[in-house]
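Can't paste images in this forum, so I'm doing it all in text. The chain is below; anyone willing to post the predicted structure tokens underneath?
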Amino acid sequence: MSKLFGTDGVRGIANTELTNKLAYELGRVGGHQLTNGKKRPVIIVGKDTRISCDMLESAITAGFCSVGIDVMQVGVIPTPGVACLVREMKADAGVMISASHNPYEYNGIKFFDKNGYKLADEIEEIIEQKILSDEPIGPEITGHDVGRILPYVTGQDAYLTCLKKTISKDFSGLKVALDCANGAAFELAPRLLADLGAKVFVSYNQPNGININVDCGSTHPKAIIQLVKDTNADLGLAFDGDADRLIAVDSSGQIVDGDHIMAICGSFMKEQGKLSHDTIVGTVMSNMGLDLCLKEKNIQFIKTQVGDRYVLEEMKTKGYKLGGEQSGHIIFLDHNTTGDGLLTSLKLMEAVVSQGKPLKDLSCMMTTMPQVLVNAKVANENKHRYIEDEVIRESINQLELEFEGKGRILIRPSGTEPLVRVMIEGEREEVISQKAIELSQLIESRLG
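Text version of the structure:
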């Protein structure tokens, strides 16, 4: 059997790769590992709107109950809602059943520890090893020690209450378009913003189990752009399937991605004295325009490798409070322990209302530099060897000298395919496009 945990939990096609048996074992073994033999522990379980969620929820819940864990089922809720409620309820762990922005036939299981953080690699490895080896985890649970299911009917309201506490403004008079991706935010996002005074225009809030993320949500921004134009909204907000990401749109239909959101919110936090160490954490995929914008505002920008877990690790280690990815996965560590699309919406709208400027004007503080990505097809065993090749290395060095700080080259081997990804940023798109093609062709000729 292949490795179970990927970069964000266990994922696969439901009922073939992510089976009921595997979900049951994840509940049994993962539950036992995270609760460490505690008497009558509690785990919170949430899910998105996929048709397979009920099936997998039943299976993992059975696994938890079989080792004496009580399960609080909160129903459909964004992933960050589970992380929040684990802390609010002082639960022993949490689980979200979702495959985020992926098609409906996929699903996933993501664990949170008692502090609401995603599991460390070493904990995932222990759980995985015990499942794959089928080793016993403890004495059989029988009688009154078997776990119970406790419907958490107030969980959604509790999460909304936590979100409302994070801002000091209401949004009266603001017209907001929403794309809920037929996913986990389909009820809560409209409720939250309406409660705070906004006039809300909602789309893709009719989930049927198979329409999650279909031509909508943060990965298909054309839908929210059109809704903003049709409703003459002040801004638009698009979530992904589990609502841990946000992509915004201004009144003119221009996309405001995660880099722009970090620039806007980070600058506002600095003005308020709330940006710890005057620092934001991003990844190597953030646009160079964000570097230049933050430099002008005397904000330090630290980059990690791609992945929100690496951003969070840097934030926790160094005490930073704001970080995220270009994809819209933004972490406000003062308020939640993972990316939170609804929270990001509130903080972005708070910046707009507090400064009395439309999102379009605020977004202009950052100019996105043209960015081109070209894939070089190579032999799988060679995709990490580009740095060892003198000809490739010399070509990269020459390009960097040619850009003289006005461009950037990023080379990344694919984690799943026999590809080397060549990303170049610069001032002129036609120039960087040609340079990216030439470099990718060189890499293919040397390593293909």
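The domain at 166-363 is CATH 3.40.120.10 (Alpha-D-Glucose-1,6-Bisphosphate; Chain A, domain 3). The chain is about 40% helix and 20% strand.
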